[in-house]
Amino acid sequence: MDQFTLNLLVVGATFALYIGIAIWARAGSTSEFYAAGRGVHPVLNGMATGADWMSAASFISMAGIIAFGGYDTSAYLMGWTGGYVLLAMLLAPYLRKFGKFTVPEFIGDRFYSQSARTVAVVCLIIASTTYVIGQMTGVGVAFSRFLGVTKESGLYIGAIIVVFYAVLGGMKGITYTQVAQYVVLIIAYTIPAIFISLNLTGNPIPALGLFSSTSIDVAGVTAGQPLLATLEQLVTELGFKSYLSQSDTTLNMFLFTVSLMIGTAGLPHVIVRFFTVPTVKDARSSAGWALVFIALLYLTAPAVAAMARLNLISTIYPNGTAEAALSYDARPEWVSNWETTGLLKFEDKNGDGLINYVGDKDANELTVNNDIMVLANPEIAQLPGWVIALVAAGGLAAALSTAAGLLMAIASAVSHDLIKSQINPNISEKGELMAARISMAVAIAVATWLGLNPPGFAAQTVALAFGLAAASIFPAILMGIFSKRVNNKGAVAGMLAGLIATVVYIFLHKGWFFVASTASFSDADPLLLSIKSTSFGAVGALINFVVAYLVSNATEEVPADVQELIESIRIPRGAGSAVDH
Questions:
Q1: N or C terminus: which one in the chain shows less Cβ crowding within 10 Å?
Q2: Domain residue limits at 282
Q3: Residue 498, Cα to own-chain centre: how many angstroms?
Q4: Domain for residue 293, yes or no?
Q5: Which among 133, 172, 126 is positioned nearest to 267, based on CA atoms?
Q6: Does the pLDDT of residue 420 top 70, yes or no?
Q7: How far apart, in Å, are the Cα atoms of 43 and each of 176, 179, 264, 274?
Q8: 409: closest CA among 181, 202, 130, 60?
Q9: Three-state SS for 322?
Q10: Are 250 and 75 in contact (CB under 8 A)?
């Protein structure tokens, strides 16, 4: 059986599974559409949360960025993992105890203001739409290679699949679909990693293989040297920046890590997952299970990144010397396959017919898109065809699961927090359900259109979304739970200040205020100290906190009933009863 047919069968089987689950779990009420009827088991919710959180950026793009960025890009691992812990410990249980459907609903009630709720909706839509662009980018990359279609066609196919199971099933359908998608993506990520780790180091555990000695000669480097040391030697000999050393500034790395952490904690599509379990105790339990499921991929990702880069170099330089670079005419099939997608390009600058892959940009002849490395790695390592097909299904599962969660958050915000709350309070449950489905369909269409021209690689686009959430939503939630002094005027002013400052900085930094033909889609020279656009979310959050407190202190105090609401959220029922007299 040829590879295309195998890809089609495996991917088609997983899509049939997702659609079947959506039909089985079709939402029949707004409670099922928004919160899956609050009846999801903590373990299943943990798996669904893992799939929701581990997006195309985690599955497809993160290892690719680490493969080419090395130490500097390890902040993705630290920021996203630390952010989930922050969310699970600091926000999720309290929001579940609040007992509503959406994050804007919490902000609106806590800050006793429809204006605050509306601003929260705007912030949510901007951050979530930016995030979903990264998922659609990943869908396009995966489809373009494995189903032999253009990136644009891949986007349209992915959008149709999401429309079917997300619009039909709502949160109930999405939850059980995400459980299946987690199983698919984690198997698809770990099996190739185990194969490649065994091949390079003889160690079946990729995370340990990263530090094990290579068992075969790689690109001319004699076996017996630790894998990371081998990779470091090769990249420096070819003129690339060190894989193990820091080249970015400490300030930018710190702010980037913080931005990813608090952005993770502020993204509503993950927060709403904790609204689907029966009790606050179950919310805490599902948070712990989700961390276990997430760790399985995140402990493997650094090894996948290093091994992918090592395999790429050993393909181009099988004998380990620049003079013995691979002839373009003798290029392996995987190179030709990815060339057809436009995501891998060769330009024979010196006319010698060899693929010169070097650190000097003027002399380098091979351009490799970061987002293809995880998907191409099994082909580079010459793994069996079924493994290659499985990776394709896993990449699509990761992208589609998160896209569905994000679109659910957007649809809930529009239908529940705008239409039901403000535009038409008397709308029937059936009408609200229809409004939610229409909102989701429109959001999918917009995300697909924006995904045709994304502002960077999948993980970079997602990092911008995290920065926007960090600057706008996270501070409002945190102050809403833990501060009795921040009032409605302070919350609104803080969210607007953080969001506007971050958006303006991103647009200025990337040149998007100019015509599209001259706009830059990569990080230019930082405008403020060494802070890049992907790191500015932490600064935006600080602006949000400062403005919120200044405005609150200059205006009236929070009403007593709202202060009681804060106490009821933070303090468990019955606390202190043992010492009451």
A1: C
A2: 3-306+383-452
A3: 21
A4: yes
A5: 126
A6: yes
A7: 12, 10, 21, 12
A8: 130
A9: helix
A10: no
For residues 305 and 359, what is the distance between their CA atoms, to the nearest angstrom?
18
Q: How far apart are CA 300 and CA 448, in angstroms?
A: 30
| Paired tokens of 235 | 């990249």
* Interval 551-573 mean pLDDT: 85
Is position 504 within any domain? Answer: no
Does residue 114 lie in a domain region?
yes
Q: Which residue has the tokens 């490799």?
A: 368
CB 458 within 8 A of CB 371: yes
- Of 7, 60, 52, 51, nearest in space to 454 by CA: 60
In-domain check, residue 38:
yes
**CA–CA gap between residue 4 and residue 362 (Å, rounded):** 36
Question: Rounded distance, CA 88 to CA 376, Å?
Answer: 34
What is the DSSP secondary-structure string of 78-147? Answer: HHHHHHHHHIIIIIHHHHHHHT-S-HHHHHHHHTT-HHHHHHHHHHHHHHHHHHHHHHHHHHHHHHHHHS
Q: Across 114-128, 274-288, 412-426, which has the greatest mean pLDDT?
A: 114-128
To which residue do tokens 């400062």 refer?
A: 546
Does residue 572 surpass a pLDDT of 60? Answer: no
Residues contacting residue 275 through CB under 8 Å, at least 6 positions apart: 34, 35, 38, 95, 96, 100, 101
* Residue pLDDT, tens place only, 487-523: 999 999 999 999 999 988 887 866 654 443 333 444 4
Quote the pTM value. Answer: 0.81
| 3-class SS letters over 336-380 | HHHHCCCCEEECCCCCCCECCCCCCCCCCCEEECHHHHHHHHHHH
Query: What dihedral do alpha carbons 221, 76, 258, 413 form, nearest 10°?
Result: 180
How much is the pLDDT for 447? 78
User: Per the structure, how many domains does the chain have?
Assistant: 1
